[in-house]
Amino acid sequence: VQHVAKGAVTDAVVGKLGIFWRSVRVNDRTTPATSRALVRRAALRVFVTRSTGLGLIAVILVSTYPLVAATPKHRAAAIGFMFEGLTAGVTNAADVTLSTGRSAADGVGTQLIAGTAVVTASVQTVAAVNFLAETARLAVAAAVLAATAGLAQEAQSAWSETVDALIDDPWAFVADRDKFADTMDENFSREKVWSNSIANFQGLLGALGPGYDVILGGLVESASIVGWKDNATLYPVSSIQDAGLRRSAFLRTMAEIGLGSRIPLDERNRRSDEDIQPKDVTALLLGMGQVDTLGGKDEAVIRVMTQPGVHPTFTLIIPSTQKWLPWDSQTPNDTIGNLTIMHGSSSLERVAAEALNEAMTAYYDQSVGVDRATVFNAEVMVAGFSQGGITAAAFAESQSGTYNIVQVLTAGSSTSNFDIPQKVSVIAYESDPVGSFDGRANPDAWETITANNGGGNGFGSHDVLRYAKLADSPVGAPQRKNNLSLFLGLGADSVISDYYAIKESK
Amino acid sequence: MRLAVVRFRLRRTVILVLLVGLGAVAFAGCANLRGGQTVDAATARIEVLAGVASAEVSQVSSLNGFTRNRSTFVEVTLERGYHIEDSEAALEWVVRTAWSVNGQKPTSGLWVGFVDASGEAVDWDWVSAVKALGYESPFVFDFIELTGNLSFDPADIGDSLGSWPGEVPQLADGVILAD
Q1: Which A residues, 411 through 470, put their C-beta within 8 Å of a C-beta on chain B?
Q2: What is the DSSP letter of A439?
Q3: Strand residue runs (E) in A400-479
Q4: B108, A256: Cβ pair inside 8 Å?
Q5: Is the peptide bond before A332 cis (omega within 30 degrees of 0)?
Q6: What whole-number distance in Å separates Cα of residue B131 and Cα of residue B140?
Q7: Residue B83: helix, strand or coil by DSSP?
Q8: Which of A256, A272, A324 sits opposite B146 (nearest CB)?
């Protein structure tokens, strides 16, 4: 590792980090050998990150043109093939650096005299901030390139179709001067620009191979060093005082999207702001929107819906991201939660398991003639929108040995990297770019629904209400065999229990 | 040579940090000076009015994907034996009060209403008032039975209310009267 970092690379990179260098120079006066080792380690991190970024950009530029007509899957494979040799060494080096970097720095800190412990901490922080910034820059570069390539692909396609039309009927173009522009306009599709860009971005992320996990791990580690931690505690009672107003606000958004007829009615057939019963997929998706509105950025509302009976079933709804800025967050469904769950598991996933366990225990305690094994082996559906869906997939991967999970339903979530057992039916609504953030296509065994939900397949489509509306239409209804009938559309109302998770420390 | 470069970069970084800090302070100052009133101030102002038993002023927000939905609520509970005498003036005042609450700009709902002492919604001819004020927009009356409030889309009536946050309105005499 030290060999790689020696020489010009170290000098060049350290020169970019004035503050970092100054910190180390303070250190240098006391223990030069240790400080130099720190410089090399941190410099290597920067070198590795930048090398990855530059390599990625180079490969995008080289590979975009010849891959214009390829399917996303082939495109990803081709980019991955070209990228593999370049990234293998870098990825391995990054893995070693990131996994050992923090402990090495901590070790150094304990060896130094008391006053220099602070310097060690600042070295860690500088390296962490640098990693976050480098990764963000890399992501933005990849997104811009994917979008540019997507636009170019569609422009080329529209041009080709227009020229074909011109060749077929040149006189029509001679007679009408505006026809060429009009035909270009007709052939150009913004939706296709989005779908091209999404496929490109997914291909680029997929091409990172193991580097994808390494970068995620680095982000989680760096965020933790900076103080943005992932944690949560589950409570049975809500901490918010204005739940009634939040419920009203959600009803209005339902009406605005054209789902006013789905607003619950009370026993006198008047509109009600009560919990939305899971009558069908649309209602299930609306339930996701309702828990998001209820919790907001104050708490993560995790909902368990129990279909009572001798053989009960349980539906677990996990909320979506409610805070994008990573600092000063009091809910586990925030940006850090997104990073940690994409890396494998999160606090939100853990408290979701607690909530399900609580609901099962409560049902068992309150039921007569139902044995414990029947309750805890009951069929379970896990569902969520955005981060909630990612967490649902992670939950199905990690908890299938504990619970009898038979159905997963997600919307606007990147889930393909989770190894969900084959017995679990998976329905994934992916009409927006977020589904591509995992870098590969979903398994064929899953039912992936990508129809336009009214948002044009862009980021405007990342909207749970639009997904609910889509599910209410023929093109949005699941077609394959699944286990939804165990949970939705049953005669009796479900017993709905909400649980509330808050971060222990912001 | 290298030391000079490092010093230059360090100086540049310090200046940048100071500028960002100054900007943040200036921004925070602007936020305080941007007018309107806070939730607490609005509540206090309403609750001292004759005929008003209590007021609930609140702002809620949630994320739906990348879109943050923000709503402002102002609900006035009248004292027993009082009623709305001039529904048009009352509605304009309460809508403008909601528009003056400066915590967050409402994007998806302005909810306003008057309820009687028992908390029940009373129709003091809100339809005519909405029409007269030109506040017509979809779903205004859809939730009055459930919540006691009229709900307006800020996008529909924001233009007629001026820039946000609006000035704090004064309730004219004779709008809320004893029976």
Answers
A1: 412, 432, 459, 462-465
A2: S
A3: 404-411, 425-429, 447-449
A4: yes
A5: no
A6: 11
A7: strand
A8: A272
Instruction: Pick A358 or B2 by higher pLDDT.
Output: A358
Question: How far is Cα A148 from Cα A141, in angstroms, rounded to an integer?
Answer: 10
For the beta carbon of residue A477, count every other beta carbon within 10 angstroms: 13
CA distance A118 to A226: 14
Nearest neighbour of A249 by CB, restricted to B2, B63, B108: B108
Residues 6+ apart with CB under 8 A from B109: A249, A252, B69, B71, B72, B151, B152, B153, B154
Interface contact flag, B60 A242, Cβ < 8 Å: yes
Ramachandran area for residue B148 (φ above 0: left; ψ -120 to 50: alpha; else beta): left
ipTM for the predicted complex: 0.79
Nearest CA in chain B to A434: B65
Q: Which of B9, B39, B63 to mutate to test the interface with A (most CBs of A within 10 A)?
A: B63
pTM: 0.73
Q: Per-residue b/e over A2-15, b at no fewer than 16 CB within 10 Å?
A: eebbeeebbeebbe
Instruction: Report the gap between the CA of B153 and the closest CA in chain A (Å).
Output: 9
Helix A464-471 / helix A243-257 crossing angle, nearest 10 deg: 50
Q: Are A391 and A350 in contact (CB under 8 A)?
A: no
> How many Cβ pairs within 8 Å bridge chains A and B?
103
CB-count burial class (<10 Å; 0-12, 13-18, 19+) for A121: middle
Question: Using one digit for the tens of pLDDT, what is the confidence trace for A310-352?
Answer: 899 999 999 999 998 888 899 999 999 998 998 888 999 999 9
Beta strands at A313-318 and A300-307: parallel, antiparallel or unpaired: antiparallel
